[in-house]
Write a structure and sequence with these properties.
The complex is a heterodimer. By secondary structure, chain A is α/β, with parallel strands linked by helices. Chain A has 2 domains: 2-244, Rossmann fold (3-Layer(aba) Sandwich); 252-382, Rossmann fold (3-Layer(aba) Sandwich). Helix content of chain A is 39%, strand content 19%. Chain A has helices at residues 7-17, 32-43, 57-69, 80-95, 120-124, 138-153, 182-188, 215-244, 270-283, 301-307, 328-336, 358-370; strands at residues 2-6, 22-25, 50-53, 74-78, 101-106, 131-134, 161-166, 174-178, 204-206, 252-255, 262-266, 288-293, 295-297, 313-318, 343-348, 376-377. In chain A, strands 3-2-4-5-7-6-13 form a 7-stranded mixed β-sheet, sandwiched between helices. In chain A, strands 10-12-11-14-15-16 form a 6-stranded mixed β-sheet, with helices on both faces. Chain A has a two-stranded antiparallel sheet with strand order 1-8. In chain A, strand 15, helix 12 and strand 16 (376-377) form a beta-alpha-beta unit. In chain A, helix 1 packs parallel to helix 6. A two-stranded antiparallel ribbon of chain B has the order 2-5. In chain B, 19% of the residues are buried. The longest helix of chain B has 5 residues, at 38-42. Chain B is elongated. Chain B is 12% helix and 20% strand. The chains are: A alpha/beta, B alpha+beta. Strand 9 (204-206) of chain A pairs antiparallel with strand 1 of chain B, so a sheet runs across the interface.
Chain lengths: 391, 83
């Protein structure tokens, strides 16, 4: 049934439909509403789960790690500094091959302290071994959570999933979302039945010391499995489309790329604005298109190469920056495009909640066409940049 | 794809961690022992066994040579020796 609701509510509802048995998180803006709603579901008896209050994000992540290891489905959510406090455990969850589901409500990181949206937090944890999926809107966020459980819990995969949603823009935005029924989700998502778990009847140790004779193989297996997630996303995407009628589980989305000369590449909610600008530019005769990356980890190199095969200029919009280098998505796409005789440019915009307006996107299109830049900041206020310290 | 991720219960003793020991090991002299049991209590590997005077002994398969038993012994009846 279609409902006009807040994004956090849609995401909590999606998680609830997947019947997690343990939920734990520590409140942090802009994620708080998601777990607040989960706690309400547990308190009202709508969701048969333990909702555990903890003293920090490190504990929240540790708690879902431990719970998942006993063979139950779990859910957590966080943002920014909270994700960073979880970092140690985030790597452990992937290394221990536990398919935890986490929603990361993307928020800028300190310093300076900033609660508004960019994607620096999840990008900084891209190397953790989690599947990272970026949602454009709240419908996609709901879809990615439900399908994400299925992808991660495949006994051959067993990897955690991070559904990344732009803080405030999605979490606090009201949109129409088609909400599936419990019966539909139960039919799509089988009961969690892991090939290994902590069980007193069949004792085993998880999270072992991996000395130099086994560590390399562990990391190789993790890497190989992430590569196997690429066809798995397509497979689960087809099943999802059949079950719910939406084509939202995919590696990338191509928007008007067929005859495009200039392609913009981005992730997350900004893709909605880019689509509008692409339409406006096309009305004026410019051959512009867009490529949205849904799966950032695993990185779908072949799908991206194929989608951008015919364009001559590629402009990549990063809402993050690897300081001292360039935007993360630019760096990877630029290396993919090596030797292809295309103009590939990287742009950094929208950090810390700075609005990305149609004018910002038009400037990126214009610059992509006329120049080549590795890391061009868009929308800088030069009056705030000084050669010397000022108070 | 998976690699070494878990081990069966009760198998940790298969790893002879005494191989990590370097340089020195405790030598239990078994001469002036008063059966206080302190060596057994402080051993972080719980690899010292014994119930009677002059019968305490470490299991070198797991002893890492930390020397705590020799340090705590009130009768100096344990000495650290070069291996």
């Amino acid at each position: 049934m279609k409902q006009f609701i807040e994004g956090s509510w849609a995401m909590a509802y999606a998680a609830k439909l997947c019947r997690p048995q343990v939920v734990s998180a520590y409140p942090i803006t802009p994620q708080t509403h998601i777990v607040e709603h989960m706690a309400e579901f547990v308190a009202s008896g709508e969701l048969a789960a333990e909702s555990v209050n903890v003293e920090s994000e490190h504990s929240a992540a540790s708690l879902v790690l431990g719970a998942q290891a006993t063979g139950v489905r779990t859910f957590t959510a966080t943002s920014s500094q909270g994700l960073f406090l979880m970092q140690e455990v985030v790597f452990n969850i992937a290394g221990m091959r536990l398919p935890v589901m986490m929603v990361c409500a993307n928020r800028a990181i300190s310093a300076p302290i900033n609660i508004w949206n960019d994607q620096q937090d999840s990008i900084a944890l891209r190397d953790a071994g989690w599947v990272q999926l970026y949602a454009e809107n709240n419908q996609e966020a709901l879809d990615l959570i439900i399908a994400g459980y299925k992808i991660g819990e495949n006994p051959k995969i067993m990897l955690p999933i991070m559904v990344c949603v732009d803080g405030f823009i999605l979490t606090h935005g009201m949109e129409t979302v088609d909400m599936p029924t419990q019966e539909e989700v139960d039919k799509f998502l089988p009961k969690y039945n892991p090939p290994y778990k902590l069980d007193v009847e069949n004792p085993m140790s998880l999270g072992l010391l991996g000395d130099p004779t086994v560590y390399l193989e562990n990391r190789y297996a993790l890497h190989k499995t992430l590569e196997e997630v690429i066809p798995e996303i397509n497979k689960v995407g087809a099943e999802y489309k059949k079950a719910f009628g939406r084509d939202s589980i995919r590696l990338v989305e191509e928007y008007k790329l067929d005859d495009a000369e200039i392609a913009l590449v981005a992730m997350g909610s900004v893709c909605g604005s880019i689509k509008d600008v692409v339409d406006q530019e096309r009305a004026k005769g410019a051959k512009v298109g867009m490529l949205k990356i849904v799966s950032y980890r695993p990185f779908p190199g072949e799908a991206i190469k194929k989608a951008l095969a015919k364009v001559s200029c590629v402009g990549i919009l990063d809402k993050n920056i690897s300081l001292g280098a360039a935007g993360a998505v630019y760096t990877e796409i630029n290396s993919l495009m090596a030797g292809q005789n295309k103009k590939v440019s990287g742009f950094v915009a929208g950090l810390g909640g700075r609005d990305i307006t149609p004018q910002t996107i038009q400037e990126i299109i214009k610059t992509t066409k006329n120049e080549v830049n590795a890391c061009k900041f868009i929308g800088l206020n030069k009056e705030l940049l000084w050669d010397e310290f000022r108070v | 794809m998976f690699s070494v991720l878990a081990s069966k219960g009760k198998t940790s003793r298969n790893n002879k961690t005494g191989s990590w020991r370097t340089f020195k090991k405790p030598n239990f002299l078994q001469k002036n022992c008063i059966n206080c049991g302190l060596c057994k209590l402080v051993c972080p590997e719980t690899c010292i066994t014994g119930k009677e005077k002059n019968q305490y002994y470490p299991d070198y398969d797991y002893c890492k040579g930390c020397g705590l038993c020799a340090y705590i012994c009130p009768k100096k009846d344990i000495e650290m020796v070069k291996e």
